[in-house]
Amino acid sequence: MSQPQPAGGPRGAPVRKPAAPAWREALERVRAAAVTEPGRLRVIGAVLAVALVAFGAVTAWQVASRSAAADSVVRTSQPLSADAADIYRSLADADTTAASGFLAGGQEPRAVRQRYEKDIALASRLLVKASANAEGSAAARARIATLNEGLPRYTGLVEAARANNRQGLPLGGAYLRYAGDRMREELLPAARGLYEAETGRLGSDYDDAKSWPWAALALGAVVLGALAWAQRRNYLRTNRVFNHGMLAATAAAVVVLLWLVVGHAVARSGLETSYAHGARSLQVLNEARIGSLQARGDENLTMVARGAVLGKNGDDAYETSYRDGMGRLVGGSQGPARADTLLDRARALADDAEGRDPVDAAIRDVREWQQRHVQARTLADDRGDYDDALRKVIGDKDSTGESFDRVDTELQRALAHEQSEFRQAADDGRGAFFGLAAGAAVLTVLGAAGAVVGVGRRLSEYR
Amino acid sequence: MRPVQGDEGKAVEAVHMAGARTKNRTKKRLRMRAGPTAVAAAVCALAATAAFVLPTGGAPAQGPPARAGAPAAPAPGAPAPEAAAREAAAPQQCTDPEASLRPSGGTDGPAVQRIKARGRLIAGVDQNSYRWGYRNPADGELSGFDIDLVRAVAKDILGDPGKVTYLAIPTSRRISALQTGKVDIIARTMTITCDRVRQVAFSTAYFESGQQVMVPKGSPVTAFDDSLKGKKVCTSEGSTAEIKVREEPHGSSLLTVPNQLDCLVRLQLGEVDAIVNDRALGAGQAAQDPSVQLVGKPFTTEPYGVAMNLADTDLVRRVNKVLEDYRGGGAASLWMKAYEKWLAADLKGITAPPAPKYRD
């Protein structure tokens, strides 16, 4: 249609320097080719093929990175976050158990001693694992260093407490309180910081996995638009409705685009479910479990300190801390958990009966624990019956310790349930990415071939 | 966190009491502030005057209840002390807080009758002061110098040293526990001071304590003097020791901890070089660690007394009689025996109990 123009050749010749760059010559050739219909067809074919392949490549790349993030949620960051929660919990458990064993004095049951040792061993082992995985995070590394330095110091203080206590010296109680202070002021905050850092990494993996692959989607739309334009042009010029090659290319692009949209939406919803019902539940339940451990530790230390440490208002510091902890855990002294307390939030986050039941049971057990605690305090503070009070706290039957153990077991059950919920939803989400990257690559390459073949058909008509 | 053990919590207690339920110190402060409190202060002053005018002397407990004293009553819910009783138990000018009421063993007054009717003496004690009042974790038994004294009182009143209910009363609660009638007596390394004799009644002094320095054996620190230069000293928070070290640091730096025993933990861990503490409690610490010792002389004088409610004058006289018996007999006295048993190993050089002082 358009007339061939001496594309700047004669005009440009006099100014052109003898050593013109090669790419410019190539460009000139393309320009020259573009003025003829076969030349234009070649360009169109090439552009379509390149666009399709680019679409496939970007799709494969973006899907692969999301799929890797989803993998990382399930395989790395969630387990690491769970490990950090285990470090946090086992340290709190060790502290509480040390105080229980201390109260039992020379008759410290073997099981109590073993539980303490297991807690310390687990924390040490998980710390090694966490530090192997903490290359990227300075915050996590600093926390791990604090924990590694503080843990042997803590166990040393506990052993000093134990040795003095077995000799019947009150100095043992002072050592135990000092150990407890180190735990509360240094180790537990560091463990909590590590848990938060790992949970933050989990959150960012979630975000990476869930973010829409905008580049691939946009490129897909552009490819479809280009294919439509090329086919319309073909129709206008030849009056042929279909060009089989380009039709195949269009079908491939549509399939890839739909697959991408649907697959990603499914993955996103699976991951969202796993986050809402799994990861958040797990977080709140972990907090609740550690909260109950600390309240138990405070209760034990109240019996160890016997009024040796007072708060600012003149009340026993450990009793005050116990009450604050119970306030955060359930609030009030009877009935259901108060709004916004940890167990209330855990209950609200549980999305089925299987998740709610253990939380409800834990709330009932906490109520019973609180009642028994009041009885123990009455025995100790008003009746001066320390031995009965001690039995009420660390005895086997009808003791606060029995209630606490039940609370711990129920929360453990709830955690196990939420962990499996999380895993299932996350696996479902992750599964939606399956084959998408490879499929997109293959289909777009086929589409590109189709486009080339389609254009080649038209081109052959010029020979 | 605040200190509690033994007697080191005086400053805290004073603050606590001022906030909660006392008059004399707060009175002055309040009077400066507002009209209504000035009226209250005037009422208190009136009550004090009334008490001054009322007959005093030998047998105040038998006098008619003088209700004029009621507005000055200390604790809400406490048995309102009678003005006459107040006069007898609390001296107006505090020059010699140690002076107590003369002993009497004759007829039982209302407080002694109350204890007899109950069949048990309720004693506020410490459970953490080794050698003074301590619960041994092995057998759950309370023992120590203070506990022996409580048993002697129970034996005298009830005929059985075992008829005692021991309540662990923290330092900050000692005075309120007496004022609310929760306990009959407090035997808990409690120092007799002018501040306190306005709030509770004390027996005669049963032990002479004082602040002293404790260090590991072989330490260059020799007393509360310049040998402390450059050393790190530990005291419990809010204690007399803390006040003294802040007044005269002798070149030392200070670490305060919630409880006096925490200082021994820090000393053993090498975090401090010396402890300044009540020597009675220091003896309890030295008994737990043979490698530390008290050095120098006590640089304050702090007499310990058994504390009771101001209104229980008959019980004060009865306890003073028990103490007379306890001290009697020279080197073979019950007092000396208790000293030998609990304290002599770590608090050497005491040859006799402190002499009693009476004000009537």
TrEMBL record, chain A:
Give the superkingdom in one word.
Bacteria
Query: What are the UniProt keywords, alphabetically?
Result: Membrane, Transmembrane, Transmembrane helix
Q: Which residues cross the membrane?
A: 41-64, 211-229, 241-262, 432-455
- Record-given protein name: Secreted protein
